[in-house]
């Protein structure tokens, strides 16, 4: 297997996955925001909220279709480009993907058509139910995808079967209630909510700056800032949960993100910033904050977090045990092929060491038969288990810094909305407009940290990335890479142009909704009490 | 988990073979008419309003329909991982083309009417046509190739190796028999799409759809019959040489397979499966008569029977094979040696048992809400489409 092929396959997967995730977070969050707006409409019966639902719904639709369409690529790419991976873990990994279709995506996609076409075919409550079903479906979709993704970093509830040469499920409950998956799910979904909130906030701010659609914009800001603040807070808190979970299950990823070269006495310091140097295994010009890392990672003052050097040492041992497992596996397989009885000793030895089998596969990069690996090769394979620290270190820090800006921004707008009569200074409105792309940057960096940080594994400790790829030729990959790049770029330009067009255009018709409502409101009061209203409506 | 022992591994494998068939048929019955309508678009609609009518007939439902395809993919991954691994990587460029088409189609439906510019709309019309006709053809070509056998082999580590260079792999798929099955697939789905259009539209669009649908039905029947003759006379079948453990480990290399006899010998072994091709022919006949007589519902039901029969006949004829290899028959994947583990099949069955009835219920409800002909008034109400 050529390395070039694996690198190209990774590039293609990374590209299509990051592209898919340009649309997903907005779908996740906007579906909920639109459903909230429609709920207000159904409860208050005020046309302005219907107008808001329809307007944001249109933007949701433009975005949704590309999320769905590019999602098909994701589902099919495992088989197309990662066929050995698909064979090796399909028994476990395929189940949540199929469940996603059954439980979530079917619901979301079936009702989304009704959301757009059902306005005059359904009762108000009926349409509201449809809107919520779309939102719930989208979010459940994310749950199942992240259960699958979480299993890749923390492969629980499965064991290797030598007869079928693959991982097989031993407990579906462990796969579902995998702590890594749960932490990822809440973190990812709230990141989606933040994205949508900042999108609504930014677009509405732009309307206010232009003096257009004031009623719609102010109400949208009210909803988005409250929803956004809650989500931005949870994205940071739950990201911390993610970090705690990582310290339990993904030690190497955590150590790499933090550039913790050596194990430090507990509680470890947090490196705020510095220049990690992988060769020398040290971080230059580092600024440390004492205790913080130990607190985040272990939630205690006396537990140590292992550093990279120590983890590499441990991995040398695991590779040695992996070789023993590999040897036993070969004996088991040989006996099975020859129709002999499988020696119970080999089976026993295999079972004792099978958890480390994947570590032997790391040697396949250097030698065909891991049993013939030299000491030097074992050391090289152990060094390979360290991902590249520099990009992880910075991607993570930028993501976190952005996360805090989201709290500040939504918090400020929430405060102005609640206590300053919904009046916003121009600088804040401009900031909100400029900040629209930032949640996307944070989300993409988050995925980069999650997936790049898992290297060199596709399934942590079980299957190396280099072994997972399909047996394709480099020219296959170059063709599809060129195809995807061209096709996706064109689609992106079209999508952006439509988004901009529909944002510029604004809601379909700018009825003076508030006046109309006030008149009706007065009329309602007068018929009910048979007298003209004294108090102006609060709004 | 002890529960899963209540159903034997063998029974589960058989049930999942049936469920996969159901998912493929579900896909063809629902998304099939979307593809048929898309392929018919340039021929049944001459003005922008007519085109919008045609698109409007599928616009509210295509998203849900397409999930049959996505669920089918996920179910193959979960229930038959080896098939997923071998076929998706083996048909690499063809899969890429299907993907591109399946991305293009929804985008075309959704974005076409977002601008009034005629050039913009014309381009999306073309995209919708290609995005509908190409997958309809390619799915058929894939079925033909599966019947002929596919050039892959499995290493002892069960890694699949597919022979040939980049372009040869693609061109070799276009064997005459595979092209024939491709034609059957396209004409069958065009007929199905015409049946849908005759329910959802009126006037000139409906008249054109009925004419083209009749023609497509005749082509489908002819191609299907011809395909059967070719299978009888020119294509070798596959068979196990010895007894096969129906509850053995999922490792194709443990069983020996040879290429011999004909696929159609299945009809001698299991005569009852003749039901499927009979359904295919009768369904087409009924659909053609219905189209000519203008009986909308009968037409659509007959068309459904035809699609069900034709797809089922392929699966029933090949059973227990699901992906035979023509370069290394021992690598062939079958129901008995290419499934997931006992537990995974059981868990997924529970998932299907809970959610499939729900899906069918709410899908039926959505169709009921949207029932009725699309009128110009509807199209104008929804400026978006």
UniProtKB/TrEMBL annotation, chain A:
EC numbers: 1.10.3.-
A cellular-component GO term for this protein: cytochrome complex
Localization, UniProt: Cell inner membrane
Membrane topology term: Multi-pass membrane protein
Alphabetical GO biological process terms: aerobic electron transport chain
InterPro entries xref list: Cyt-d_ubiquinol_oxidase_su_1
Transmembrane segments: 20-43, 55-73, 93-117, 129-152, 191-209, 221-239, 394-415, 427-450, 470-494
Keywords: Cell inner membrane, Cell membrane, Electron transport, Heme, Iron, Membrane, Metal-binding, Oxidoreductase, Transmembrane, Transmembrane helix, Transport
Molecular function terms from GO: electron transfer activity; heme binding; metal ion binding; oxidoreductase activity, acting on diphenols and related substances as donors, oxygen as acceptor
Family membership noted in the UniProt record: Belongs to the cytochrome ubiquinol oxidase subunit 1 family.
Identification of the protein by name: Cytochrome ubiquinol oxidase subunit I
Automatic annotation (TrEMBL), chain B:
TM segment ranges: 15-45, 66-84, 90-108, 128-150, 177-199, 211-235, 272-293, 305-323, 343-367
GO cellular component: a single term: cytochrome complex
Membrane topology designation: Multi-pass membrane protein
Location, primary (coarse class): membrane
Gene Ontology MF: a single term: oxidoreductase activity, acting on diphenols and related substances as donors, oxygen as acceptor
Keyword tags: Cell membrane, Electron transport, Heme, Iron, Membrane, Metal-binding, Transmembrane, Transmembrane helix, Transport
InterPro entries the UniProt entry points to: Cyt-d_oxidase_su2
Record's protein name: Cytochrome d ubiquinol oxidase subunit II
Organism whose genome encodes this protein: Sagittula salina
């Amino acid at each position: 297997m050529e390395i070039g092929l694996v690198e190209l396959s990774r590039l293609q997967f990374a590209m299509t996955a990051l592209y898919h995730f340009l649309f997903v977070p907005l779908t996740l969050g906007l579906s909920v925001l639109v459903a909230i707006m429609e709920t207000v409409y159904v409860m208050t019966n005020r046309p302005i909220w219907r107008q808001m639902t329809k307007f944001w719904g249109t933007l949701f639709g433009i975005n949704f279709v590309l999320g769905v369409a590019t999602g098909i690529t994701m589902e099919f790419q495992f088989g197309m480009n990662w066929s050995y991976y698909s064979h090796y873990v399909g028994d476990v990994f395929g189940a949540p993907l199929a469940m996603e279709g059954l439980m979530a995506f079917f619901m979301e996609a079936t009702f989304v058509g009704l959301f757009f076409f059902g306005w005059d075919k359904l009762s108000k409550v009926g349409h509201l139910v449809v809107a919520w079903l779309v939102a719930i479906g989208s979010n459940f979709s994310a749950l199942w995808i992240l259960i699958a993704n979480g299993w890749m970093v923390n492969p629980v509830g499965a064991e290797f079967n030598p007869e079928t040469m693959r991982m097989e499920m031993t407990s579906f409950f462990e796969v579902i209630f995998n702590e890594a998956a749960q932490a990822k799910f809440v973190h990812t979904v709230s990141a989606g909510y933040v994205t949508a909130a900042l999108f609504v906030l930014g677009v509405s701010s732009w309307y206010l700056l232009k003096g257009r659609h004031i009623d719609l914009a102010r109400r949208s800001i009210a909803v988005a800032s409250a929803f956004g603040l809650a989500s931005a807070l949870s994205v940071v808190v739950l990201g911390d949960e993610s970090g705690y979970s990582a310290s339990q299950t993904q030690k190497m990823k955590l150590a790499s993100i933090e550039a913790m070269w050596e194990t430090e006495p507990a509680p470890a310091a947090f490196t705020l910033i510095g220049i990690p140097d992988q060769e020398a295994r040290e971080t230059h010009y580092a600024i440390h904050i004492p205790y913080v890392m130990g607190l985040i990672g272990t939630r205690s003052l006396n537990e140590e977090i292992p550093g990279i050097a120590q983890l590499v040492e441990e991995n040398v041992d695991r590779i040695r045990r992996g070789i023993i497992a590999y040897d036993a596996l070969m004996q088991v397989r040989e006996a099975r092929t020859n129709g002999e009885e499988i020696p119970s000793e080999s089976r026993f030895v295999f079972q004792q060491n099978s958890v480390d089998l994947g570590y032997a596969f790391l040697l396949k990069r250097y030698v065909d038969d891991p049993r013939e690996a030299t000491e030097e090769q074992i050391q090289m394979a152990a060094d390979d288990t360290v991902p590249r620290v520099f990009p992880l270190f910075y991607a993570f820090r930028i993501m976190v810094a952005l996360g805090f800006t989201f709290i500040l921004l939504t918090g400020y707008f929430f405060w102005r909305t609640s206590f300053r009569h919904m009046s916003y200074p121009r600088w804040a409105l401009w900031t909100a407009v400029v900040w629209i792309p930032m949640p996307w940057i944070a989300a993409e960096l988050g995925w980069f940290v999650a997936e790049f940080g898992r290297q060199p594994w596709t399934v942590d400790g079980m299957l190396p990335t280099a072994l997972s790829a399909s047996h394709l030729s480099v020219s296959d990959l170059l063709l599809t890479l060129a195809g995807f790049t061209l096709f996706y770029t064109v689609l992106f330009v079209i999508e952006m142009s439509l988004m901009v067009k529909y944002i510029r255009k604004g809601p379909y018709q700018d009825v003076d909704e508030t006046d109309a409502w006030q008149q009706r409101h007065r009329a309602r009061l007068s018929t009910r009490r048979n007298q003209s209203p004294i108090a102006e409506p609060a709004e | 988990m002890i529960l899963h022992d209540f159903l034997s591994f063998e029974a589960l494998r058989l049930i999942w073979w049936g469920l996969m068939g159901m998912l493929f048929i579900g896909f063809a019955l629902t998304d099939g008419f979307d593809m048929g309508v898309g392929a018919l678009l340039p021929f049944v609609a001459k003005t922008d309003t007519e085109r919008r009518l045609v698109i409007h007939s599928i616009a509210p439902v295509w998203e849900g329909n397409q999930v049959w395809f996505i669920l089918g993919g996920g179910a193959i991954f979960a229930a038959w991982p080896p098939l997923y691994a071998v076929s998706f990587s083996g048909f690499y460029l063809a899969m890429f083309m299907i993907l591109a088409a399946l991305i293009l189609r929804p985008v075309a439906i959704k974005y076409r009417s977002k601008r009034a510019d005629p050039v913009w709309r014309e381009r999306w019309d073309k995209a919708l046509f290609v995005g509908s006709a190409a997958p309809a053809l390619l799915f058929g070509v894939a079925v033909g190739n599966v019947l002929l056998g596919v050039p892959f082999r499995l290493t002892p580590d069960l890694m699949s190796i597919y022979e040939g260079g980049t372009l040869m792999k693609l061109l070799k798929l276009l064997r005459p028999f595979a092209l024939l099955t491709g034609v059957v697939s396209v004409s069958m789905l065009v007929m199905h799409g015409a049946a849908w259009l005759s329910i959802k539209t009126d006037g000139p669009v409906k008249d054109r759809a009925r004419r083209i649908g009749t023609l497509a039905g005749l082509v489908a029947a002819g191609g299907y019959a011809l395909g059967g003759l070719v299978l009888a006379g020119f294509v070798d079948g596959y068979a196990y040489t010895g007894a096969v453990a129906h509850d053995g480990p999922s490792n194709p290399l443990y069983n020996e397979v040879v290429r011999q006899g004909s696929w159609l010998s299945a009809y001698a072994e299991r005569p009852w499966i003749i039901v499927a091709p009979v359904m295919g022919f009768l369904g087409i006949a009924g659909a053609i008569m219905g189209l000519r007589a203008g009986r909308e519902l009968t037409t659509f039901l007959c068309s459904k029977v035809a699609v069900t029969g034709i797809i089922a006949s392929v699966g029933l004829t090949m059973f227990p094979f699901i992906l035979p290899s023509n370069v290394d028959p021992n690598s062939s994947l079958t129901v008995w040696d290419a499934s997931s583990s006992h537990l995974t099949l059981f868990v997924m069955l529970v998932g299907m048992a809970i959610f499939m009835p729900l899906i069918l219920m709410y899908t039926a409800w959505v169709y009921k809400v949207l029932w009725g002909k699309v009128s110009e008034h509807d199209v104008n109400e929804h400026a978006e489409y």
